[in-house]
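Supplementary notes for students who missed Thursday's class. We covered one full example, reproduced here. Read the sequence, then the structure, then the short commentary at the end.
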Amino acid sequence: MPVNSTSATETRQAGNKIVVAGIAAIVLILLIAAIVLFANLPDANAFNARVEQLFIENADLTAQAEIKLLEILAQSGTAFSETLDSYRFVIFVLLIFATAMLIAAVAFLVMLIAMNRRMGHIERKGIEVNSLLISRDQNTVYLNNFEFKLTAAAIETLSVLAEARMDDEVLSGAEIEAVISGRSAADCDEAAGATRIKRLRDMLGNQMVSELLVKNIARRGYMLAVDKDIIQMV
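Structure (token representation):
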């Protein structure tokens, strides 16, 4: 029976297509609105055409006052045309601004949704450890390229846990103490190993990191909660 699976890449590509389609829809809607708006605006030369018609229809008006009145009407038509042109420019600028604001709003919304999903993933899965490099000679551990300076005892404890993790083993406190001290596990105290684990966690400092890195399995012992393939020891 075939299993339907969707990779993270496919999901991201689908999300990108939705974003592009949303932005294209916004631009298209505003473009249609602009066309309808400009189509319904009055003609800038409508007033001038009406004044010209008055000149033609009243060619017999020869008095100085009548001619002056027609000239005033013509000048008013020119002023109206210039005002309407400025209104068209203002409307055009506002439409561009509205388009930019809507596109920015969609982009920020998508970023917010992606961030919320990422945070939810982190909350469900915890901190994802991609690399763990233990340098014994420098008493340093590199966790996801973050450097933690530890004591020699803490490095020994972490090294024992790392070696056990690579062998898929869970060590009790007594077994940890036995490996480090070179004695038999039967001769070692469970509390001694637990103390070493506590000191290791204290040296790591960040409680969240230390608790997620060194896992306590009830009635079994301790192990590193990381993929064994990412562990390196030098």
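Commentary. Residues 15 and 110 are 9 Å apart (CA to CA). Residues 1-8 have pLDDT under 50 and may be disordered. If anything here is unclear, bring it to office hours.
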